[in-house]
Write a structure and sequence with these properties.
424 residues, mainly alpha, Rhomboid-like fold, three-stranded antiparallel beta sheet, 8 strands, elongated, membrane, Peptidase_S54_rhomboid_dom, transmembrane
C-alpha cells in the first residue's frame, strides 16, 4: 500500500494541477509577450538614461563661471563706489558711516548707489559717447555696472538661481556665450531707443538666459514628449533637462520632475511679469526686451541637443538616424540668420546715429507708460548755474525750478547731484 501511495501521489498532483490551471499554448505565448512588454517598459527609461549618459551633449558640468560673473559684478560695484567717493565729491550722502563707500542721497539715487556722473565715467552706456566718441566698448562694459545695491542684489540673485543650474546642464562655454551675447544685444536695442539717459545693469544678460531657457524647450521638445507619463492622480511626471524659475533640477536623467499644469503657465507668466515691471520709470525695458530676444534666438543655436530617436537608436547598427531632426535643423538655421541680421542691422543703425523713436512712435511705451503718479520724461537733468561768492544759484531747464545753495567752489559732481535733485 505504501508503494501505491508513493506511485499515485505524483500522478494525482499533476492531474490536479492540469485541472486547475488549464494552461493553453496561446495563453503561454500571450503571457510571455505581456511580460516582455512590461519588462521593456520598465527598462525603457533606464536604457534611455544609459544611452543619454554616453552623449557629450548630456554631460554633467560643474558650475563655476556664473559664480565668477557674480563676483566680478560685486567687485566692479565696490570699485565704482570707491571712485564715487560721495563725502568728498557731493557731500549730501546716505549711510555716511561707510565713509568713502557711502551712497548718494536717496533723492538722487533711490537704489542706494553712485551718481550718474560716476556711472558714466566707469563705462555706463552713453549713446553720445558710443557714436561720437567711438567708445563702442560701452556696449559691453555697461552690463557689469549697477545703479545701486538694490539693483545689484536683484540681478545677482536671479543670475545665481537660473545661471548656475543652466551651466550644470549645458556647460560654461555655451552659457557664458549666451550670457555675454545677450547682454550685448540688449545694449544695442537700448542704445537705439534710449538716446539721452545712461543705461547700466546685467538685466539684459539675465533676460537672455531666460530666453534661452525657453527656446531650449522648443528645440529639444522630442526629449520631453517621449519622457512623459500620466499617473492616476493626474500628475504629469517628466524627466526634463529644461529649467524654470519655480522648478529646478541639477541632474540630467537621474531625477524626475513632477509637474502639474502650473509649470506650463507659471514660466511664461514670470517672463511677462518681469517685462511688465519694465514699464515703470527708471527701468530700461529695452535692454530687457533686447536681451530676451537675443537669448531666445541664441538658445536655438547653442542649446540644441540630439533628438529622442537618435539617442534611442544610436546603439543599433542597423539604424542610422540623423543626430538632429528636420525641425531642429530649420529652427537652428532660421535663428542663426535672424541673429546675424539683427546684430548687423542694429550696429549699422547705431553707428549711423539712427534714433529708433523716429521710426517707431509708440515704442517708447514699451519702456515706460506715463500715469498720473509718474512721468516718463527721460531727458537728462540740465541746469544753469551762477556762482556769486559762496552762493550758488541753479535753475533746472527741464521744469524751471530754481534753488540757491551756500557752497564755496563746489565740484562738478556736487553741482550735478544738486541739479538731479532739483529736476526731479
Amino acid at each position: 500500500m505504501g508503494e501505491k501511495e508513493s506511485e499515485t501521489a505524483p500522478i494525482w498532483g499533476r492531474t490536479r494541477q492540469s485541472e486547475n490551471n488549464n494552461i493553453h499554448p496561446m495563453d503561454v505565448e500571450s503571457s510571455a509577450l505581456s511580460e516582455q512588454h512590461r519588462s521593456q517598459n520598465r527598462s525603457r527609461g533606464s536604457s534611455y538614461e544609459e544611452r543619454g549618459r554616453g552623449v557629450k551633449e548630456f554631460r554633467s558640468w560643474f558650475s563655476w563661471l556664473i559664480p565668477c560673473f557674480v563676483i566680478a559684478n560685486v567687485v566692479v560695484f565696490v570699485i565704482t563706489m570707491y571712485v564715487n567717493n560721495c563725502p568728498k565729491k557731493s557731500g549730501d550722502c546716505f549711510a555716511g558711516f561707510l565713509g568713502r563707500f557711502s551712497f548718494q542721497s536717496t533723492r538722487e539715487n533711490p537704489l542706494l548707489g553712485p551718481s550718474s556722473l560716476t556711472l558714466r565715467t566707469m563705462g555706463g552706456l552713453d549713446v553720445k559717447k558710443v557714436v561720437e566718441g567711438d567708445e563702442g566698448w560701452r556696449l559691453l562694459s555697461c552690463n557689469w555696472l549697477h545703479g545701486g545695491v538694490v539693483h545689484l542684489l536683484v540681478n545677482m540673485l536671479t543670475l545665481l538661481f537660473i545661471g548656475m543650474r543652466m551651466e550644470r546642464e549645458f556647460g560654461f562655454i555655451r552659457i557664458g556665450l549666451l550670457y555675454l551675447i545677450s547682454g550685448f544685444g540688449g545694449s544695442i536695442l537700448s542704445a537705439l531707443f534710449l538716446r539721452s539717459n545712461i543705461s547700466v545693469g546685467a538685466s539684459g544678460a539675465v533676460f537672455g538666459l531666460l530666453g534661452g531657457m525657453l527656446s531650449e524647450i522648443f528645440i529639444n521638445w522630442t526629449i520631453y514628449t517621449n519622457k512623459t507619463k500620466l499617473f492616476k492622480e493626474g500628475t504629469i511626471t517628466v524627466k526634463m533637462v529644461a529649467l524654470s524659475a519655480s522648478h529646478c533640477s541639477t541632474s540630467k536623467f537621474s531625477r524626475t520632475w513632477q509637474l502639474d499644469k502650473r509649470f506650463f503657465t507659471n514660466s511664461p507668466l514670470g517672463y511677462f511679469i518681469n517685462l511688465g515691471l519694465g514699464v515703470l520709470p527708471g527701468v530700461d525695458n529695452f535692454a530687457h526686451i533686447g536681451g530676451f530676444a537675443t537669448g531666445f534666438l541664441l538658445g536655438f543655436v547653442l542649446l540644441i541637443r540630439p533628438h529622442y530617436g537618435w539617442i534611442n537608436q544610436r546603439s543599433d547598427p542597423a539604424a542610422k538616424p540623423h543626430k538632429y531632426n528636420i525641425c531642429q535643423a530649420i529652427l537652428w538655421t532660421v535663428s542663426l540668420l535672424l541673429l546675424l541680421g539683427w546684430f548687423i542691422a542694429g550696429l549699422i543703425s547705431l553707428f549711423n546715429n539712427v534714433d529708433g523713436n523716429k521710426h517707431c512712435s509708440w515704442c517708447h511705451y514699451l519702456s515706460c507708460v506715463p500715469t498720473s503718479r509718474w512721468s516718463c520724461n527721460r531727458e537728462p537733468a540740465s541746469c544753469t548755474t551762477t556762482q556769486l561768492g559762496n552762493q550758488l544759484s541753479m535753475t533746472c531747464l527741464r521744469n524751471g525750478k530754481s534753488g540757491s545753495y551756500i557752497l564755496a567752489n563746489p565740484s562738478d559732481s556736487r553741482i550735478n547731484s544738486l541739479c538731479v535733485q532739483l529736476c526731479r
